[in-house]
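User: Please run a holo structure prediction.
Assistant: Happy to. Please share the sequence and the ligand.
User: Here you go; the ligand is heme C.
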Amino acid sequence: MNRLYPLFLLFCGIAAAQPSEYKQWASFDGKASGEVPRVYANPAAMKGLRGGSYTDGAAIVWDLSAAKDASKRRIDWMVREGGKWEFARAVDGKVTIKPPDEAAAKCAACHAGEKARGGVFNVLPDWNREAATRYLDARAKQWSEWSVAKAKGGSCVSCHTTLLYLLARPEGPYAAQFRSGLQTRLDDSEQKQTDGASVEAVLAALVLGSDQAKARMWTKQIKEGTARGSFPWYSLDLDPWESSKSAYWGAALAAVAAKGESAPLTEYLRREMPGQPLHHRLLLLWAGTLNPDEANRLREEAWSKQADDGSWTVDALGPWKKEGTNATAFATAYTAFALQRGAADCADPRMGRALDWLRRNQNAETGSWSSTSMNKSFPADSMQIGFMDDAATGFAFLALSSKSCADR
Ligand code: HEC
Ligand code: HEC
């Protein structure tokens, strides 16, 4: 009984002037037809809703308080206590049904009929890790066989496909081959002075992490002028990583690899921060170049752009050369990942909502998360049409695999 007590207090109006606690929990639309209730579940209940079991303290609120039809407005809830569910209802802020009322026993009787699911009618899909793994491995295989990506010692490392593969599947069947290609080119005594060589040096420092790779990266660093501290980068008018502003994102990646080693790099990131797309600045959380106040502000800026359903549109992370691209899966996965690497609180319900959005939006057939190019439309049977899916899937895989954040 005592676990119901805080909820009773809430509904008795004591907390009416503040946001009610349950509204901070993970939530989703209920199954009912007609007016759709919002269902809220605390972390213990979320475990059960995803197919686990319900432990004492699990609580689920079924909220129709905003129904258009006033006669339907109510809040029903159930709390797990002593190995069984206790049921209650509130109408207009007043508790109308509570244990041991006969009406509460009727709620329990009907819910008990849903035995296989522990007395709960709604279920939430979990994500399909095997299907996502199959997708990533299949794309890595295609990349390794793609003639366009051929490079000395193997295939080139791309931001969209290979980098994400190496981060998400470092032990995957193609990872060693991509790393050894990078190593072959590091060992090559003949060095090119191209943007591509600089980009690769940064990516190699990030994924190989060796002193040799970092030393190579520093040889590419720009020593003077307004870009001092940063690295030559592709500018091919391709958002989000190869456009005129992408050098900032590249420098932030370098800072992740450098772990604070270069003062000119940190200064560059600080100096050029104003006006950078949120997408680029988010990497500073991972790089650790901000002081605690700045990091806090950046995290709050990211949360403030989150949609009610837990997602981020890619426009919310802009500005970009083109608006309105549907790359929501990519933007959501990337932002959740960056916030996780940037020490966001995993208990924050906003993280829960982001991860639940990802769980609900995996393509059941392909195992991937779909996003559209921010630049152009590629032919349906091309390798290129999958690049943003590769990135979205890699980041979603990483965000949903986070032990601390996804196990809640
Ligand atoms: C050298 C190995 C490599 C190959 C091969 C490669 N990429 Fe890309 N690439 C992009 C972005 C961003 C796009 C745009 C994707 C989109 O529009 O969906 C792109 C698009 C492409 C396209 C389509 C270009 C067009 O204009 O039609 C090809 C082909 C491609 N990449 C191949 C970021 C990168 C980055 C990040 C710095 C690296 C490294 C990178 N790419 C490395 C590589
Ligand atoms: C005749 C069967 C029945 C009775 C009686 C009943 N429920 Fe339910 N309940 C359902 C069904 C079916 C759903 C799922 C539909 C939906 O989400 O809109 C549900 C959903 C819920 C949920 C969300 C969790 C879940 O199981 O999906 C809560 C909380 C809940 N009911 C509480 C109550 C309370 C409190 C009472 C009594 C005041 C009650 N229910 C009476 C059938 C019943």
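The first strand starts at residue 26 and ends at 29.
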